[in-house]
Amino acid sequence: MAGRQRLLLENAEQLVLVCGHGERCLRRDGAARLAVLRGASLVVGLDGCIKAVGQADAIRNQFSEATFERIIDCSGKCVLPGLVDAHTHPVWAGDRVHEFAMKLAGASYMEIHQAGGGIHFTVEHTRKATEDELFSTFKHRLERMLRAGSTLVECKSGYGLNLETELKMLRVIERAKRSMDIGISSTYCGAHSVPKGKTATEATDDIINNHLPKLKELQLSGEIHVNNIDVFCEKGVFDLESTRRILQAGKDIGLQINFHGDELHPMKSAELGAELGALAISHLEEVSDEGIKAMARANSAAVLLPTTAYMLRLKQPQARKMLEEGVIVALGSDFNPNAYCFSMPMVMHLACVNMKMSMNEALAAATINAAYALGKSDTHGSLEVGKQGDLVIINSSRWEHLIYQFGGHEALINYVIVKGKVVYQNEMCETMSSY
């Protein structure tokens, strides 16, 4: 093949394609059996997209070494798709470490929330913070996610609850989109909680009549680009009818529906999401059997968040039942002041141990299915020709070490690559073994 190329990853012990036939998502047996090549190489072109994947000898015969800007010898190493974190709340000020102590002492999430803590505590601090202050902490968090292997992250607003602060958060997310290597899917989550002094109906009317029209105006002017709309559909927060109104209004201005449902109480959120054509529904600890069936029929992804169930001591989501029913199961870290986790490898480990997913299913959920949940599985989530060259190289001869090892990823992840450019290189891995 003529012409310059950006990157050659040569002779990987394992090249984990995840998908091998252009699948938009993987379910049932597809998620249980991933495509993996041995002794393989991969080429990324100057446009940041994958140009060739195959056996090392075949790639060597097809390309001259002189055409590459960079060559990385992956002998004894594994190459995987960049991880996709399908649910985070990373823009905020004021941590809630004091509430972790309260939870350990027995206080429930809603007890803390109703006492003015939880989301309301973070809203107070986020409203006071400047845009530059929020961007500085957000950038640091994204860098930590990148070093843990995440190359595409869903990022929500939702700690403003008034138009001014929600737009401030969305501008911060837009700024990161334009200035950082990591991929971002932006979510408007103004219905994260009912603001103090308003009823749920009043808050719903404000979002539909004021927030969303302004959002549409800023989208059309190119000032910000928002991908998804989110609502916290929960008892004591936004009920089913308010959720329906907000999600439909968001859909009407072109946003993908991707919302919180059936977390603390059975709300029939999954059934609503399936009816509205939701791309994804998150949490689902209390989802009904009919909700699971409805999501499978509607091709709505279930974004499961094992960190949340773990930290709040909730019932675990029914991952096995969802997988058996044919639901598209994805994973997210739910990074926020209540679930402070940057690491998708740790999320996958928890999904395997606590939700009884296999390692293959967990990796599919953190790559192609998480990309599907964000409407990006045509460009992200697997190592196939034409897709964006987002990759993770680990210092191990078996890819499963990324899940098997609980923590300590600073000594395992060797390179993180976005669009064929090395954005993180860990020199420590050159002299260390994974075992």
Structure description:
This protein is of the alpha/beta class and 435 residues long. It folds into two domains: 4-81 and 382-425, Urease, subunit C, domain 1 (Roll); 83-374, TIM Barrel. The protein is 38% helix and 22% strand. It has 17 helices and 16 strands. Strands 1, 2, 3, 4, 5, 14, 15 and 16 form an eight-stranded mixed sheet that branches. It has an eight-stranded parallel sheet with strand order 6-7-8-9-10-11-12-13. Strand 10, helix 10 (269-276) and strand 11 (280-283) form a beta-alpha-beta unit. Helix 8 packs parallel to helix 9. The two termini are 39 Å apart. The mean pLDDT is 95.
Question: What is the subunit organization of this protein?
Answer: single chain
Task: Specify the biggest β-sheet.
Answer: 8 strands, mixed
Portion of residues in beta strands equals 15-25%
Total tally of structural domains: 2
Percent range of helical residues: 25-40%
CATH superfamily name of the largest domain? Answer: Metal-dependent hydrolases
Query: Overall 3D geometry?
Result: globular
Low-pLDDT stretches are: none
Radius of gyration: 21 Å
Helical region count? Answer: 17
Structural class: alpha/beta
List keywords for this structure.
single chain, 435 residues, alpha/beta, Urease, subunit C, domain 1, TIM Barrel, 2 domains, eight-stranded mixed β-sheet
